[in-house]
Automatic annotation (TrEMBL), chain A:
<dbReference type="InterPro" id="IPR035906">
    <property type="entry name" value="MetI-like_sf"/>
</dbReference>
<feature type="transmembrane region" description="Helical">
    <location>
        <begin position="129"/>
        <end position="154"/>
    </location>
</feature>
<dbReference type="GO" id="GO:0005886">
    <property type="term" value="C:plasma membrane"/>
</dbReference>
<comment type="similarity">
    <text>Belongs to the binding-protein-dependent transport system permease family. CysTW subfamily.</text>
</comment>
<feature type="domain" description="ABC transmembrane type-1">
    <location>
        <begin position="93"/>
        <end position="298"/>
    </location>
</feature>
<keyword id="KW-1133">Transmembrane helix</keyword>
<keyword id="KW-1003">Cell membrane</keyword>
<feature type="transmembrane region" description="Helical">
    <location>
        <begin position="174"/>
        <end position="197"/>
    </location>
</feature>
<feature type="transmembrane region" description="Helical">
    <location>
        <begin position="233"/>
        <end position="258"/>
    </location>
</feature>
UniProtKB/TrEMBL annotation, chain B:
<dbReference type="GO" id="GO:0005886">
    <property type="term" value="C:plasma membrane"/>
</dbReference>
<feature type="transmembrane region" description="Helical">
    <location>
        <begin position="235"/>
        <end position="253"/>
    </location>
</feature>
<dbReference type="Pfam" id="PF00528">
    <property type="entry name" value="BPD_transp_1"/>
</dbReference>
<dbReference type="InterPro" id="IPR000515">
    <property type="entry name" value="MetI-like"/>
</dbReference>
<keyword id="KW-0813">Transport</keyword>
<feature type="transmembrane region" description="Helical">
    <location>
        <begin position="103"/>
        <end position="124"/>
    </location>
</feature>
<keyword id="KW-1133">Transmembrane helix</keyword>
<keyword id="KW-0812">Transmembrane</keyword>
<dbReference type="InterPro" id="IPR035906">
    <property type="entry name" value="MetI-like_sf"/>
</dbReference>
């Protein structure tokens, strides 16, 4: 008997033991709850963010006593009032919002043809090239990419040296608003293309051919067939680009050089320069609210687009 | 790609601008790292590897890179089981409140990074674990978790539920069904997801900036801090480390699952 038992491979015996343990702590009658058990770790992990938001909300209601550098024990909405009335924050908020809208529009204009060409091309080589050119910067990270732009656009950068050769005086190409917008568009392009491409794949190519054979030129085919059908992709890409650029920190910090702060930079300064945690937390909370309102608005107007997860997809 | 000439002119013009914009920083950083001069010029004054020799000597850079690797490893190790289980559950089962759970699990994307980062900073501060590396890894995992879940759901929707029933019918107990039928079927998603998690954690900047102090600074934060003061070619040489990691990730992704997976309609 014993010899027969040991004749089983070790992996079988381990699996049997594991099955036994699993059956003991999670009997078959719990079967219906299994999906919830599988979701539990993810729910708990994301719960850290919820806890964080609660902490931020708590901190946002405490004011800083500037004589003792202590935070008040009782709650007040003084920070909220300050956040709304201080002109600096209004300037920063307006700058970020306008930037987010411009960046979203420009990014979608460039991302659409990129995704379209990548999906529709007959050449596997070209498709692979476009994919690699997209993923390489996507995986490189903001800091290094912004650093590359500093080398190109900086005061002693390549562009200025090239201009110097033809006798043009050096220009200040960085530390201004357009530089930040440009850096953000470059950062957002891969996100937008990757959100658009699946939506374009879902459009049968025959539809375009049909529109063409009915006499539509390519512009009309795009306007009446491709763009409307690609809407889920545009919604997904638009939401991602809008929220990511509205809340970005690194690009305004590096390419804006401190003069083009966005909301995230203002929040960071409140925490680490001014040390007014309460006001910083209030600003962070308001940014979260602003972002959620924007996302909610887009979803309510257009549906979740390509952002939906799981079985039910729109 | 049949179309009129004007269509291809317009398409190609826009795509070329996009391509140049996407690739310029990478190419310039690569070129600048090989310069022989003390300041960055492009094209470089003479080629040399002296800046690479310099950074390989600098222990602060090496340590920062090792810490970054550690953070990315923690992030990936946590993300693989958590994201795989959640992804399979979402893709396979009709769970109650599915929409609510989906919206909840998308929170890492809808909450701005600065908000998530500061929230985690306050929690970790209260818990007294700020100043260690593993919480940074956990933080990177939380903020990018939807990528992992996404990748897994995308491949799990292609799994025929009858296969699992067939395995069970042949006498396989639940765990064996999971390990020999379900898991292999979602493997492409798990691989894609974990590569994404690793590389995104390697590059994560803002959350790292909020959670690290001077003793455990990670490489992206170190580069950011150095940019502020002065631009020297050694910074370009360190940046090439990230370019190399990115190239390896793209290569692996293409080899293991194929980059085309991102073009598939869901």
């Amino acid at each position: 008997m014993r010899a027969a038992r040991t004749a089983y491979p070790l992996t079988w015996r381990i699996m049997d033991a594991l099955e036994g343990v699993a059956a003991a702590i999670w009997p078959a009658r719990f079967r219906r709850a299994t999906p919830y058990l599988m979701l539990l770790p993810a729910v708990l992990l994301v719960g850290l963010l919820v806890l964080g938001l609660i902490q931020i909300a708590d901190a946002s209601l405490r004011t800083l006593d500037t004589t003792t550098f202590q935070f008040s024990d009782d709650y007040s909405i003084a920070n909220f009032r300050r956040a709304l009335t201080e002109p600096l924050f209004l300037v920063v908020a307006q700058r970020s919002l306008v930037a987010a809208l411009i960046v979203t529009a420009v990014t979608l204009v460039f991302a659409f043809p990129y995704a379209y060409l990548m999906v529709r091309t007959r050449s596997p080589g070209l498709r692979k090239f476009l994919l690699i050119a997209l993923f390489l910067p996507f995986f490189i990270g903001q800091v290094v990419r912004a650093y590359g732009w500093l080398i190109i656009l900086g005061n002693q950068g390549m562009v200025n040296e090239a201009l110097g050769l033809v006798g043009v005086a050096p220009m200040r190409l960085i530390y201004n608003y357009p530089a930040v917008l440009f850096g953000l568009v470059q950062y957002m392009l891969p996100f937008a293309v990757l959100m658009l491409a699946p939506a374009l794949t879902a459009i049968p190519e025959e539809l375009e051919a049909a529109a063409g054979s009915l006499g539509a030129n390519w512009v009309r085919t795009f306007i009446h067939v491709v763009l409307p059908l690609a809407r889920p992709g545009f919604v997904g890409a638009g939401v991602v680009v809008l929220t990511l650029s509205l809340t970005d920190f690194a690009v305004p910090a590096i390419l804006g050089g401190g003069s083009q702060d966005f909301i995230a930079n203002a929040i960071y300064d409140q925490f680490f320069r001014t040390s007014d945690q309460g006001l910083g937390a209030m600003l962070a909370l308001m940014l979260v609210a602003l972002g959620s309102i924007l996302v909610g608005l887009v979803f309510a107007l257009f549906g979740a687009g390509t952002l939906a997860m799981g079985r039910s997809r729109t | 790609m049949i179309g009129s000439r004007s269509k291809s002119i317009v398409l190609w013009t826009l795509v070329t601008i996009a391509l140049v914009t996407l690739s310029a920083p990478t190419i310039v950083v690569l070129g600048a790292s090989f310069t022989d001069g003390n300041i960055i010029t492009f094209p470089p004054d003479g080629l040399s590897l002296r800046w690479y020799a310099r950074i390989s000597q600098a222990s602060d850079l090496r340590n920062a890179f090792m810490r970054t690797l550690q953070v990315a490893t923690v992030c990936t190790i946590v993300a693989i089981p958590v994201g795989t289980l959640a992804g399979i559950a979402l893709a396979k089962y009709a769970v109650r409140f599915e929409k609510t759970i989906q919206i909840y699990l998308l929170l890492p994307f809808t909450i701005p990074l600065i908000g998530s980062g500061i929230g985690l900073m306050l929690i970790f501060g209260n818990a007294g674990i700020l100043g260690q590396l593993w919480p940074v890894g956990i933080a990177c995992c939380v903020i990018n978790l939807p990528f992992m879940i996404w990748a897994v759901t995308a491949s799990a929707t292609g799994l025929d539920p009858d296969l699992e029933l067939a395995a069970a019918n042949c006498g396989a107990p639940p765990l064996q069904v999971f390990f020999s039928v379900t898991l292999p079927a979602v493997m492409p998603g798990v691989i894609t997801g974990s590569l994404l998690m690793f590389i995104l954690a390697l590059n994560e900047f803002l959350v790292s900036l909020l959670l690290v102090d001077a003793r455990i600074v990670t490489l992206p934060v170190l580069i950011y801090n150095s940019i502020r003061s002065i631009i020297t070619p050694d910074l370009a040489a360190i940046s090439v480390v990230f370019i190399a990691c990115s190239a390896v990730a793209v290569f692996l992704l293409d080899r293991l699952v194929g980059l085309d997976i991102f073009l598939k309609s869901k």
